[in-house]
């Protein structure tokens, strides 16, 4: 990114125009700031402050002002990703909620789908619901599946339930009734009644959060939204006040789980949409970088302090889906498909009761952090193992904020080695091998689900820890290429900077596919299109909108649907045959068979409304092929023996620079560990490309 970014559109004629992307992770908050007038990009990492979320943001803006001449008064775009929502769920520190549902359906969230998280484990158990059973209230009310009312809500029962919920400490209430996807009137009337009885409680209805068929999916999504609402809303309110006090004129925008953006005002209500914002932003940033470099098949590897996240980019675009896990709970709104595992740079290594070495999921986080940070950490981590092996610790980290204490790393890993009765270097290597093997298993699952051959893909490691372990993982997976961006540590922040506005909308139609049913589908699409355009206007977008239409479809008798892309002209022309053919083709691609004579049902119509973000591009620099000159030599334990290898400074590597592994490349935001058997080359976009030669 040092070469700068050229602003193709939204150029400012005079003065300074700063556009800033920010992403908060478990250990660091990342900044990617673009000065649009000059095309200069500034990046930064600051340690998070879990005890005061948001304070690190102000610290980072101050550092940008000191180091880069950043002027908050001239910030015209501010995009923010945060982990407040997902951490609230993982730590179970959310709101005390009550659930109002139909009498006789009080067990809806405990029954769920009657599936165990791991059907092959004898010790597997389902997570405790976010709402305890004594806070679930059955209300005499019933809506028929066709949307007609069978029994009106018993408002006396509602009044009694509100009184009990308040007495038991409820902060908010979720209203979720049967068939509200068809007709939300009953939920709306009960919500209004609660508002009159208890104006101090917040209330969400399932149909307003995500009006989809299936009561468990609709209820659980609304519960997640309400569970994080107080903390997210409080955080965003404090964020707006801090930015205002700082003199920032830009309206804060938030990254969403679907890879798009929304404004902070909506984020306070639609909290569920930003639960996976950080991981999604990383994939969006990686997709943008992949398209710039002409890479069409990418496996992303985002390693932070607490986790490793994986995603596939195919034809330059991220993959989307539903059912992503938020902690222990599925999220049923569209989101960028990301698989995660609790192995990161801060993951702690330990010996269990059987004497087996384990890594993670417990993490040292940012406070106290790995022992080598010198901030009070007393347990060995993956980062400490990298230091002991010699891959890490040869330069300052996190833009000069951290100095690696190799002595502390050797001490804590040495204590673990003594318990195992092994040399300290071998113990450190074992920690790294376990971390890589756990990632290997998760990536293989991802590849199997997607039906792809990873040998056709390029690995893109990013995050502070991605380049440390990425090449070793690629080697184990049999991948041939690795592409590390110029600033891997701030790819998630870049993702927010280049993201589009994106809103997802859904209507359940539940009808057989036929020429006669196309009217209902066309009517639903038109309603969603109006909703999508109105949403974009509310976000402040007044330019052209891109409307993408899909349908959830299935053969009659199947339990679950597949998502099929539809063309608007098929609906306009009444072309049911084209829709059926698209479904058969998609089914064939996913399951390797289709039934040309099978009756087809349409369940949901989906629409995504996209408002294009700023058009940015990296300048290309002519490459001059020349061997890179190492800064110095250093000794590294490479897994078998201690070898003397080259150390390169990323700052002085130019397009066309080449060298061989094993080697270490240091830079302000990360360290790139390059194993033997690799050829490295810097491309015209300042990406560092590795090719395995053996």
UniProtKB/TrEMBL annotation:
Organism domain of life: Bacteria
GO cellular component terms attached to this protein's record: cytosol
Residue ranges annotated for the Hydantoinase/oxoprolinase N-terminal domain, each copy included: 19-194
GO molecular function: 5-oxoprolinase (ATP-hydrolyzing) activity
GO BP: glutathione metabolic process
Residue ranges of every copy of the Hydantoinase A/oxoprolinase domain listed in the record: 218-502
Residue span, Acetophenone carboxylase-like C-terminal domain: 520-685
Name listed for the protein in its UniProt record: 5-oxoprolinase
